[in-house]
Amino acid sequence: MNRGTSRKKPATASGVEMRSRFWIGGNLRVNWLPERSPVNRPVNSRLVRRLALPRDAALQMALHCAHEYNNLAAILPELYRDYGKNGC
Question: Integer distance in angstroms from the first to the last C-alpha of the chain?
Fold first, then answer.
């Protein structure tokens, strides 16, 4: 239902900047059927996309990412100290 990509930017003065982009509901289909299957045409209709995806899907995804990145910000410095550069 969604495709996400994360793009890591070069280091900044205070760390690394990370950005995520998601395409939510752009192309719904039954994965185990061929793309041109007659079933996939109605599955990818505007009505089904509207019913299948909550109105707040984008907001929920943004909140999820913020929570996950906050978790990473808490654990990555210690992991880097233990295993970064020549620690591996």
Answer: 37
With residues binned 3-state (H G I as helix, E B as strand, rest as coil), the percentages for the chain, rounded to 5, are 45, 25, 35
Place of tokens 């900047």: 17
Name residue 74's amino acid.
A
Per the confidence metrics, is the pTM higher than 0.70? no
**Amino acid identity, position 26:** G
* pLDDT (tens digit per residue) in 47-67: 888 888 888 988 998 899 889
Alpha-carbon span 25 to 4, nearest angstrom: 12
CA dist., res. 46 & res. 10, Å (int): 39
CA–CA gap between residue 83 and residue 46 (Å, rounded): 48
> Where are the extended beta strands (E) located within the chain?
2-12, 15-24
